[in-house]
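Feature request, filed as a ticket because there's no other form

It would be nice if the structure record came with a short human-readable summary line next to the tokens. Right now we just get the raw output. Example of a typical job, pasted below so the devs can see what we mean:
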Amino acid sequence: MAIQLEGNSLLYTVTTLTCLGFLLIGFDNGLMGGFINGKSFTETFGIDTNTNYGTNIIALIVSIYEIGCFIGAVTTSFIGEKLGRRKSVLIGVVIMIVGKNMSSNCSRPRSLT
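Raw output as currently delivered:
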């Protein structure tokens, strides 16, 4: 049984969900910036942010994260259309679990890139 939305209720629902999506993107970016620029992160991975090499490593980590977000956003519509919502969500969850496990097991900057 699907809910049929029309008119203002459709507009408010789409607007609310879009705002929540952008809120989550901002939250993720804020967390990413907080972790990467934190003293414990730079000390653990031996990144000296006062050098060009250190700032380039930080920029590379953030860039890979953003590229992954872009690729995921673009491909989700195509994959979701062919496989359906449940299978595409399952694939996304598996990819996130694998990625989080890989990043949580890193012990040096080279492992993150």
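Something like this underneath would help us a lot:
The mean pLDDT is 84.
Residues 52-83 form the longest helix (32 residues).
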